[in-house]
Amino acid sequence: MTKKALLKKVECAYIPVRDVAVSAAWYEEVLGLTLRSPLEPGRGAILVLGDGQWLFLLPCSEGTAMTFETAGWAESGQAYEMFPLCFETEDIEGLHASLLAAGTWVEEGIRDEGSCGKQLTFKDPDGNKFQAWQQP
Fold first, then answer.
1. Please, how many CA atoms are within 13 Å of residue 2, restricted to the half-sphere of its CB?
2. Domains and CATH numbers, the chain
C-alpha cells in the first residue's frame, strides 16, 4: 500500500531581505515578477511568479541570506554553498541576460545538463542563492 503524500506543492516562499523596497524593485525589474500590492513601510512585499505562486520578501535587519553548505552537491566532495530554492523558467537565456545586465552574481554560465535540462545559479542583492531550471 502506497501512502498518499500529505503535502501537494510549495505555494509560497519567505525570503529575508535588508531593504524590502530595493529588493522588490530588483525582483520586478530583473526577474520580471509582479508586485501583488503596494509597499507599506516596515512591512514585507509579495511578488507573484508566472504560475501564481508567491514570494514574500520579509525585512531581516541582520542580513542573513538563505544559503547553507553541503558536501553532498559538489563532485569533489568539498563544501558547496547550496541554494534552498530552484525555480522553473521557460526562458533561461533571457533570464541569464537580465541577470548579467543588472550586474547580478551568477555562479557560471548556463549549464546544459542533458536530460536534466538547462540550469543557472544566481544570487539576489541580499545574497540569497537560487537556481533556475528549464526543461530539456
1. 2
2. 10-61 (3.30.720.120), 69-136 (3.10.180.10)
